[in-house]
Design goal:
Order of helices and strands: EHEEEHEHHHHEHEHHEEHHEEEHEEH
Number of strands: 14
Strand order of the largest sheet: 3-2-1-4-5-6-7
Amino acid sequence: MKIAYFSPLPPQRTGIADYSVELLPALLRRAEVDLWIDQAVAVEALPSCKTFNYVDKPGLLQELGGYDAIVYHMGNSPAHRSIFPVLLAYPGIVVLHDFVLHHFLAGYYMESLREPESYVEEMGYNYGSAGEEVARGVLKTRTWIWEHEPLRYPLNKRVLDHARGLIVHSELAVGLVRKSHPHLPITKINIPALIDNATPDMAELRQRYKIPRDRVVLGSLGSANHAKRTDAESVRVWTKLLSEAGLNPVTVDGVLFYNVPAGVLVSYRTATAHMMAEREVSISFGAMISAANRYLAAGFPLAKVDPWEARRRNVIDLPGDTRSSADDPRWWRNLWLGPWGDSLIGVGVVGDYRDVRFLIEKYRADSTDIFFPYPARLADRSKNGTGQLVVVFTPQGLQRAATRAIR
């Protein structure tokens, strides 16, 4: 059996490259394997396979018809950006390392190809006209929906449609795929846990990093990307928030270690993704209400209120962001603040109805109007899906809402 094998490989810094290095020797005992690569690889780390660089020589791809099987490793990272278009042109067996591919495809269309409209088309391919509407909202508000509810929009339909067979690593993935593609051949293969024979000395590690024995250690594993909140600006914001909560880090070789008392984690042990989304929305929406109230209380003109003017007036902190002159100043990330007519003020947020519904109940009594999804007024038929919630207040209503925001 002859296999064309597409995968990230060392020195690419991805776990799938390491996975392939462990898998290939076993696979070679059962088949002839050619490695199809998009960049130079560390040959010394790989078995003796023929390599074909299909990026430097795209004409080689015509030879794929001569293989018994084509195997594509697909995951949720930029390391697969060259593999994806080949899969679409030459369908084969897909090893799906991540059920959710939204992060990968958003980056592929908007960053690698610089074609944001293709992202809209991809959302349409997966979710119809409703998906296109959500995608346009993403482009307008720069609200990265794949970070908040990744399983709601996994964006994997095109990959699954082009798979002749599927390999996954969990029963969860098997169940989810069978719901959308019941006739696609699928099997689960566990990822081996290769454990070093040398047992780490936990006491020595705690002593080295000055971590008391009774403290819980939290780690962020994988790529240090925006979703992990480990970028420099996010670290600054988290450091400030944790400091205000009485948690101060120990810095070792530029790495921040927090000694988090076990009691701090109790309230999060049973928290669901939905509960965390509600908490995030509550804090950010409430902060915008409080800032708008402080802005008006200071006598600043209602007609000019927006997040950036509030920031300029030192009534709100918008960490790290800068605004282009082409951007609508009433937006900051997924939050909206601006005048509503001559005497009212609107506060808005983009999100799923399930995650913003509690805001409607919390601030309904203080508002004069509520829209969801904007520009439609809130009605029974609109109580689902994703869109922009806008709550409109009088200055007096805003003052009452601000007292609720801090509860």
